[in-house]
Design a protein that fits this description.
Layout: H1 2-20, E1 33-35, E2 48-56, E3 60-64, E4 69-72, E5 80-81, E6 87-88, E7 92-100, E8 109-117, E9 129-136
Antiparallel strand pairs: 1-2, 2-7, 3-8, 4-7, 5-6, 8-9
Length: 139
């Protein structure tokens, strides 16, 4: 009985050692893009610019549903496609400038400006996004 107990104890120690010595799997930070604020006070009806600050942990791009808004830059700076086809760059804090035209409609209007990450491991994949709403007064 002592031999069996000794064998089981030694076997348990060996198994525990083998498991604890396995390399820890390294996980990347999840792709994300965050805005300091999702909207601001309405801008004047005259043409102008508005800066939006974002923080990104992955390559990103930005789009809008409004033809009266031009965005610069339209994607994360220093984004490159490697020989493996993966996108890199765009990580960090960025200021994006929204340039808008004069509002001659007489009514307030809004533009949805959507910041979207590009999956690090493939060009198409799970994406995360944040929306900034730009409102321009009409009067």
């Amino acid at each position: 009985m002592r031999k069996v107990l000794l064998f089981l104890t030694v076997a348990s120690i060996i198994c525990a050692s083998a498991v604890s010595c396995q390399p820890v799997e390294k996980y990347d930070t999840p792709d994300s893009v965050a805005l300091y604020t999702q909207s601001g006070p309405a801008v004047d009806k005259t043409a102008g610019t508005k800066g939006v600050t974002i923080t990104a942990t992955a390559a990103w791009y930005v789009t809008t549903d409004a033809s009266w808004v031009v965005i610069s830059p339209a994607d994360g700076e220093d984004m490159t496609v490697g020989s493996d086809g993966k996108l890199t760059g765009g990580r960090g804090i960025h200021e994006v400038i929204l340039t808008y035209t004069e509002n001659t409609t007489g009514a307030a209007r809004t533009a949805n400006v959507v910041f979207t990450t590009v999956n690090k491991n493939q060009v198409f994949g799970k994406q995360y996004s944040e929306t900034y709403v730009l409102t321009q007064s009409g009067e």
